[in-house]
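hey so i finally got around to running the thing on that chain from the lab meeting. sorry it took forever, my laptop kept dying and i had to restart like 3 times. anyway pasting the input first so we r on the same page abt which one it is
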Amino acid sequence: MENTLPHMEKGEDNYKVPNLEKGIAVLEYLSLRKGGETLPVIKNDLNISQTTAYRILNTLVRLEYLVYNDDSKRYRISRKLLTLGFRSLDEQNLLEIVLPRLQELRDRVKETACFGVLGEEKGIFIEQALGIHTFRFFLSPGKPFELHCSAPGKAIMAYLPNIVRNRYLSYMKFTRYNSRTITTEEAYLEELEKVRKKGYALDNEEELSGVICIGAPLFNYTGYPAGAIWISGPKDRLTPEAIRSAATHIKEITRLISSELGYRKT
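ok and heres what got predicted. didnt touch it at all, straight out
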């Protein structure tokens, strides 16, 4: 017997689950509030009764989609949603392969090592291995990063098929952060050509003054850039010599990960 979905026009309301819709509304609402929010504010903003809001919030906490802070009385999004979203990518085992190598890179260069992928319009930071220095960089999983002024953004964009690269270029606003920021498409394309020649990308204080990032792409078995690995550090530690050394390590680590993903350079 063939299994088919019912035609919604026969009565769409019959197939709605109001509390599920409210639960999704809560998740979408909290995804826009990095610090989380309290029950009274959530119920008022979403026009949900206190009892319903309380049940939804605590169900999501129990299922680990939300985290509740006893001190601030705030609910916020957990990493579980990020993990679910990441699992939907083609490379389901990518993070398992990347994490040990990320830690290996951190041990080699001593700086914070990061991993990210492309999102809808920008890059998305996924995971990191914190550097060993007292002063080190920390990012929150899910944080977007610009493509025009970041090392991972340049590293991925340099190796995208033209039709995909052009789509991302159409989204880019080339926001100026300082005098070092690339602000035109022409200059950006020239920069991507340099990335392809060197095999790595550099953010030379282009977003944050005093901060340098070095990154290289990961390739899957089809040769498509599945993400990027990069390090971040202050310019007083990342001297020109340190940058060259770190770039060598990053390219080696990304080559190892790409090989584990089935990539064979032709």
